[in-house]
Design goal:
This protein is of the alpha+beta class and 145 residues long. It contains five helices and seven strands; from the N terminus they run αββαααββββαβ. It has helices at 3-15, 34-46, 60-64, 68-77, 130-133, and strands at residues 26-27, 31-32, 91-94, 104-109, 113-117, 123-127, 136-140. The chain has a five-stranded antiparallel β-sheet. A two-stranded antiparallel sheet has the order 1-2. The longest helix is centred in the N-terminal third of the chain and has 13 residues, at 3-15. The chain starts with a helix and ends in a 5-residue tail after the last strand.
């Protein structure tokens, strides 16, 4: 992946900071959830989204157990890369427990931080502390145009 795309991803993600949390939202400044943040970044980079997620409940991963988020990431971003190779501007997915589907997404940023839509709050930059690091399910490169 080109460093130019990674820099663009990070810049776009930073421009979403402060956007209120809104389940199923994907509009900068109005509201988004973690998937909506990634969808909004995708639209700014590439235009139209490759697929729409359709409606989803807050507990979709717990109820279905399907790796919907992980499978979509592989379809559109390619195979995951080791977190040790992750750099600012990469997509990172999290799972709450080892036996659960990946359910949360964010964008890696410098200084061991990531940007994500924090439920009940806003899009924020958070430290990638051990409790977050051990939940990482996959890291992905945004594709070149």
């Amino acid at each position: 992946m080109s460093e130019h795309i990674q820099a663009q991803v990070l810049s776009i993600a930073e421009s979403w900071i402060g956007t209120p949390y809104r389940h199923q939202g994907s509009t900068k400044g109005v509201g988004c959830d973690c998937l909506g943040l990634v969808r909004g970044i995708w639209r700014e980079l590439y235009g139209r989204e490759p697929e729409l997620p359709g409606p989803y409940a807050r507990d979709w991963a717990e109820r279905s157990g399907e790796e919907r988020l992980m499978n979509a990431a592989i379809r559109h971003f390619g195979p995951p890369i080791p977190i040790s190779e992750g750099t600012p501007g990469d997509l990172v997915l999290f799972r709450w427990r080892p036996d659960c589907a990946a359910k949360h997404a964010g964008i890696l940023c410098g200084g061991r931080h990531f940007i994500h839509a924090y439920e009940q709050a806003t899009v924020v930059r958070s430290a990638l502390v051990p409790s977050w690091r051990r939940r990482i399910a996959g890291t992905f490169l945004f594709p070149d145009r």
